[in-house]
From TrEMBL:
Official protein name in the record: ATP-dependent DNA ligase family profile domain-containing protein
UniProt keyword list: ATP-binding, DNA damage, DNA repair, Ligase, Magnesium, Metal-binding, Nucleotide-binding, Nucleus
GO molecular function, one term: DNA binding
ATP-dependent DNA ligase family profile domain boundaries: 331-376
GO cellular component: a single term: DNA-dependent protein kinase-DNA ligase 4 complex
Domain of life, source organism: Eukaryota
Lineage: Eukaryota, Metazoa, Ecdysozoa, Arthropoda, Hexapoda
Length: 376
């Protein structure tokens, strides 16, 4: 992919008026790049994305290159004589942080002196240049590298290189939004690892959802949590003609139950492992033995989401946190026993269900257990 084509795309985004139109444009162009069958087999979207969001590119080191240094490099490159243009270029760094875009100021000068080049550089060459720029030992080497690259490029492309080095393309759209245009879970996944390379590798298929990738048997995952709705937004969130579910709020501890071929693991909301307490199989722990015979035999793999509660075996009702009892460390012969209130099913055999409607998940959940009434 030629860098000039990417620069044209940058300019198109910048000229697009509304944020919604910008997002639509980026999504459509990203999809077109993904679906381009004529592209080289060695094409790597990561090389494109790191130029879109240079401030998120943790794999690349610091450029240590600010406006003043680039002004000096360009003055040498153009061999500018004393006068207006040299003054504008040498003082343009003073405008950094103001409304005026440094890239535009530089472009207004250098376009008068640089001819249009027919030999265009590729995106890969630009990335190699930027990688090398971070490894320069001193300012002189950095300036020399920039001069060599700028001599190969027209003024309009240099403007975008400058913005990339300054890590602000001024596209009028946030870096998180750009990642979400690459994949709907792009920003969320980047937040977990700070790696653009991983975002491109793991989310290469735009149809794969992050929650599916995160869900693995015997690995804790981030549970879905409720969010507070303001009274003023209630009717908007819950219109009269829309069906919704109301879940009872249990006063226990959020837990995940994982089972594979009669081996169990239990994880708290924060991912702590309490399997040793609750039981890794039907023979151990204070809770797993109570599940013997309750799961349907056809179930070989299972992840359940629910609330670990206190159960009062004397009166047949729930306890609460205020009773100063730790549900994870009960005596297996005491009056209070652990009880797991399941409200969602995450995995059923080899099928991850997180993208299925709650109604369907509840229907599947109803087939997991053999219904029985038992007091311990």
């Amino acid at each position: 992919m030629e860098f000039k084509d990417l620069c044209s795309f940058f300019e198109e985004i910048r000229q697009t008026k509304t944020p919604n139109d910008k997002r639509k444009l980026i999504r459509e162009r990203f999809k077109k790049i993904r679906d381009d069958k004529s592209r080289s087999s060695s094409f790597d979207f990561y090389q494109v994305l790191r130029l879109f969001v240079p401030n998120f590119d943790r794999e690349r080191g610091s450029f240590n290159m600010k406006e003043a240094k680039m002004s000096r490099v360009l003055t040498k490159l153009l061999d500018l004589p004393p006068g207006h243009d040299r003054n504008v270029l040498s003082k343009s760094h003073l405008m950094a942080g103001q409304a005026t875009d440094f890239g535009d100021v530089v472009y207004s000068v250098i376009r008068k002196y640089l001819r249009s080049y027919k030999n265009q550089v590729t995106v890969d060459e630009i990335n190699k240049f930027l990688d090398d720029l971070t490894k320069r030992q001193n300012e002189q080497e950095a300036e020399q590298a920039m001069m060599q690259m700028f001599q190969k490029m027209p003024a309009e492309n240099i403007r975008w290189i400058i913005r990339i080095i300054l890590k602000d393309l001024k596209l009028g759209v946030s870096s998180n939004t750009i990642l979400n245009c690459y994949h709907t879970d792009g920003a969320a996944y980047y937040a977990t690892n700070n790696s653009l390379n991983k975002v491109c590798e793991v989310l290469a298929d735009e149809n794969v959802k992050l929650n599916e990738l995160e869900i693995e048997i015997f690995e804790p995952f981030r549970p879905m949590l409720s969010k507070r709705i303001e009274n003023s937004n209630f009717k908007k969130e819950f219109p009269e003609n829309k069906e919704f579910y109301v879940e009872e709020k249990f006063d226990g501890e959020r837990f995940q139950l994982h089972m594979k071929e009669e081996n169990f693991m239990y994880f708290s909301r924060n991912g702590f492992n309490y399997t040793d307490n609750l039981g890794k199989n039907y023979e151990t722990g204070i809770f797993t033995p109570k599940l013997r015979g309750l799961l349907e035999p056809r179930i070989k793999k299972l992840i359940l989401d629910g609330e670990l509660m206190l159960w009062d075996t004397k009166y047949g009702n729930f306890g609460c946190k205020g009773m100063a009892l730790d549900v994870k460390k009960l005596n297996d012969t005491g009056r209070y026993q652990p009880c797991f209130c399941v409200f969602d099913i995450i995995m059923f055999n080899d099928r991850v269900l997180t993208n299925q409607p709650l109604k369907e998940r509840r229907e599947i959940l109803a087939t997991v257990f053999r219904e029985t009434e038992q007091l311990w």
